Amino acid sequence: MFYRPEDGHGLPHNPFNAIVTPRPIGWISSRSADGVNNLAPYSFFNAVAYEPPQVMFASTSAKPDQTGTKDSVANILETGVFCVNIVEYAMRDAMNASSAALPREDDEFVHAGLETVECSTIPCARVANVPAALECKLTKVITLPGDANRVVFGEVVGIHMRDDCLVGGAFDVTRYVPLARMGYRDYSAVREVFSLTRPDEAS
């Protein structure tokens, strides 16, 4: 099968959502200028640079009570900071609950029954007891073609790691089982890992 996105795919569900998978989930916490905490999961998320460490996430729709975007992007534009909370399988239901389209004055931490902890380097809340959290300062927001498509880039200025995830000096993802986004309503849990030696590395 071949199709041009501009012509439509003719299938019951959009296959593009299932092709680029699995995708890590950026559970983005932010705070509005008037002090309201916000928490929302974004599956268009990834790390993009090592030195300095940088991440990105993309927001692809808008809310009626925001101007052309969602609460996360609006808050980050106001304050210049955000935190990425890493989602483990055990927190899948809370993550899903935080995706509800709530009014901007509502706190998703409260809605999802999550405990908050204040970040160390930025004025923002983070999710307590997540495997890792990345405190970020905004570097750039890029507007993409299409309605409300924005990519947010941030420099990581503080990193929290849960002690039980550190094994032999390495961050071991199998200790917490990362949750990944698949297509449609599907998710996946990372329970197995393997290593490959690059051709230009010594064996």
Automatic annotation (TrEMBL):
A Pfam family matched in the record: Flavin_Reduct
EC number(s) of the enzyme?
Answer: 1.5.1.-
| An MF annotation (GO) of this entry | FMN binding
The lineage's top-level taxon is Bacteria
Annotated Flavin reductase like domain ranges read 18-172
EC class, as a word, reads oxidoreductase
Among its keywords, does the record have Oxidoreductase?
yes
List keywords of the entry alphabetically: Oxidoreductase
Q: What is this protein called?
A: Flavin reductase family protein
UniProt organism field: Parasedimentitalea psychrophila
